[in-house]
Amino acid sequence: MNRRHFITTVSAAALLTIVAGCKTEPDGEKFLGYWKSDSKYDPDAIHITRNGDSFLFTLVTKDPFGGGYQLHKLPGKLDDSDNILAVGDKRVAYDESADLIVSGQMKAHRTTEADYQAIAKQASTKP
């Protein structure tokens, strides 16, 4: 009887280990969507989409030299970690506990498409 109980326990533990190791979403799925920086006066707006095996990082940001908003489209790809997105020479990290993205001094929280569009309509396209 003890042997049967032992085999059942080991089998259940092995099954739980296999199930826990399975991913439920494709790599980088957590980055997709609309984001808005925490800046109170001139927030950046970000839209991250899939572009084949990589990502398209669309950033709408205030011109630091006093102009209006500018729209930049940059390619991105996952770094060595599933929580780091390489965009140009910058790294964007995803904080799972707070559902936000961080890069240097910038922190951005998930937002709606309407919030993103409100900022993006003020932008002129820049390469």
Describe the SSE topology:
Elements: H1 2-21, E1 33-37, E2 45-51, E3 54-62, E4 69-78, E5 84-87, E6 90-95, E7 100-103, E8 106-110, H2 113-120, E9 123-125
Parallel strand pairs: 4-9
Antiparallel strand pairs: 1-2, 1-8, 2-3, 3-4, 4-5, 5-6, 6-7, 7-8
Protein described:
- This protein is α+β, with helices and mostly antiparallel strands.
- The chain has 2 helices and 9 strands; from the N terminus they run αββββββββαβ.
- An 8-stranded antiparallel beta barrel has the order 1-2-3-4-5-6-7-8.
- The longest helix has 20 residues, at 2-21.
- The protein is globular.
- The N and C termini lie far apart (72 Å).
- The model is unreliable at 5-23 (pLDDT under 50).
Write a brief structural summary:
The protein has 127 residues and is α+β, with helices and mostly antiparallel strands.
Strand order of the largest sheet: 1-2-3-4-5-6-7-8
What ranges have pLDDT less than 50 throughout 5 or more consecutive residues? 5-23
Cα shape? globular
Number of helices: 2
Kindly report the average pLDDT value: 81
Terminal Cα span:
72 Å
Note the run of SSEs as H and E: HEEEEEEEEHE
Which structural class do you get from the secondary structure elements?
Answer: alpha+beta
The portion of residues assigned to helices is 10-25%
Output the radius of gyration: 21 Å
In quaternary terms, these chains amount to single chain
Main beta-sheet strand count, sense and barrel state: 8 strands, antiparallel, barrel
The amount of beta strand, in percent, is: 35-45%
Number of distinct beta strands: 9
